[in-house]
Amino acid sequence: MMRQRKRKKTVFLSPERLVFKETDPKATLTVYNPYDGPVFYRVLSNVPERFIVSDPEGCLPSAYRVDIAVQYRLDEEEDANEKADNKFKIDLYSEGKVLLGSKIIFAEIQTSKREEDSFRPTRESSVPRPAASATTKHSPRRSDGTTSSPFIIIIGLFCVGILIWPDPGTSRYTSFIEISTSHRLLAAYVLGLITVAIFR
């Protein structure tokens, strides 16, 4: 009879991908043992010189787990392709050092490049710049239409009429209209605002 092939065991771990940041180049890999008996684990890497593993191998009793601290070695000389090709392989062994199962996970290196570093100086264009017109360069007044508003002109003339209106009793034609001192002060104030708006 042919010897029955032993079935491989599934490697249970968390997370499925290790993420390292330049500001915090550390991650935690958790390996579980949901099986009846103890198993031995071993953590391998395709670039072991880039990582520091706290417990690269050990024994895991039944229904236990182990948290493995993994630290990424910062190296500014590495290019983007080298940082993207990082893998870990977790092997499970029996007491007789028989391979029970394996699993490969990837490691992601997130760079913290500042936003202002992604901008570069622009080149000066050879297209001639448009010449500024004399009206826009030496305009003495604003072009918002304030000085030519008919409404403001009417209000200004009305305020002038209030200020030059005679006092009651000085003329028989003005006895039916009496303008108080407060009204004259208000008209003078409004007329001052209009004058400032026009000659500003």
Summarize it.
By secondary structure, this protein is of the alpha+beta class. It has helices spanning 80-84, 134-137, 150-164, 181-199; strands at 12-14, 17-21, 26-33, 39-45, 51-53, 57-60, 64-72, 87-93, 99-110.
Shape type:
rod-shaped
CATH domain topology of the largest domain: Immunoglobulin-like
Report the structural category. Answer: alpha+beta
- How are helices and strands ordered from N to C? EEEEEEEHEEHHH
According to CATH, the homologous superfamily of the largest domain is Immunoglobulins
Please tell me the total number of domains.
Answer: 2
Classified by CATH, the class of the largest domain is Mainly Beta
How is the biggest beta sheet arranged? 5 strands, mixed
If you compute it from the alpha carbons, what radius of gyration comes out, rounded to the nearest whole angstrom?
43 Å
Return residue spans where pLDDT drops below 50 for at least 5 consecutive residues: 135-140, 142-147
What does the average pLDDT come to?
78
Write the CATH architecture name of the largest domain.
Sandwich
CA-to-CA gap between the ends?
Answer: 109 Å
Spatial sequence of strands, sheet with the most strands: 2-9-8-4-6
The total of helices stands at 4
Estimate the strand proportion.
25-35%
Approximate helicity band: 10-25%
Based on DSSP secondary structure assignment, what is the total number of beta strands? 9
